[in-house]
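User: Thanks for the earlier help. One more: G-protein coupled receptors family 1 profile domain-containing protein. Can you show the sequence and predicted structure together?

Assistant: Of course, both are below.
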Amino acid sequence: MGDKRKKVWQQGRIHVLRGEIPDCRDIEVDQGRMNETTATAFLFYKHPEYYQTVIIGDYCIGPLGVILNGVCAYILWICRKPLSAQKTLLFFVCGNNLLMCSYGLPFTAFDQQSPEVKQANFCTFHAFVYFLLQSYGLLVLLMVTLNRYFVVVRPTSKRFTFGGPKRTIIIALIGLFLLVIFFLPAALGIWGVLGHELSTGSCVLVSQEEGGDLSYNLLGSALAFGLPVTAMLLCYLHIYVVVRRQNRKVLQGNSFGTNKEQQRRKQELRLLTTTFGMIVLFIAAYLPYVLVISFPNLRKVVVLKGLSRILPGTHCLSDPVLCLLSQNTYRLKLKRMVHCGKEIERDDGSSVTAQATH
């Protein structure tokens, strides 16, 4: 880009030194080509590494995510009794991921195939639903974290608890309602813009350079990503300290029922580890997007821009896998589905005969 500007300037300077009048049409042609190149350089959908990453990634993650989350939801359903707050929240995780994989990601890939022509109202609607699902996925993970925190750190508290399934559903729906309220100003164009971003050819939260509002985008990154992630990390750090302390006390004791208590603490630590892994993968998936939306200098890096579009959807694959690995019961049911009619081994060393579930 700089070499072309320098070449045009040098050509004009040579003409002047020779006492000649340069042909303005030639200079205009060179400048027109230069402007065309400048505009095309930051139309991300014209770069194969961006376009192919978004198309292939969304089309692959969508169907695979439907299968994994469908299996996870089915196993949660057959293991639902007794229905707890934790299982209820995991149902919300699977449901949100199923909507993202069946609508959000496939339509994003389909929409990317016609980057220049958009139907304004539907583009705004899709951006609204897409970002609502993405933000709600993180909010539900925050609720899962808080539920584990209350159970482990404050097990006897009546105030700090999600209570039963009905109360948990109400809390989850209130969180969804608050997110809808937050995204409405951008959908209506009052504050921030949800719509067609020319540089990517996608229906997204528009950046400041293309008519969006930087303050809204930064606030959204802080509320929908920064605060939940910080809260989850602090909660899990405290949970880890409490569980380690309790395990140390159990190992030092010789009272009746110590083995049973050790098994319970081991299960709690395993559940803590898998859920924490879910959070870490979610952070890794969303970090490129947060960097792109928060720092203007990084928005023109084609590879980073492509990763910021495709990585957020990968949590739809990791969530059900970690969920099924979190408890012995879920793993046993999964083994029964895979090894129908065969003898399978429990984690405690005993074996059972797998039967097909109808």
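User: Great, one quick takeaway?

Assistant: The two ends are 65 Å apart (CA to CA).
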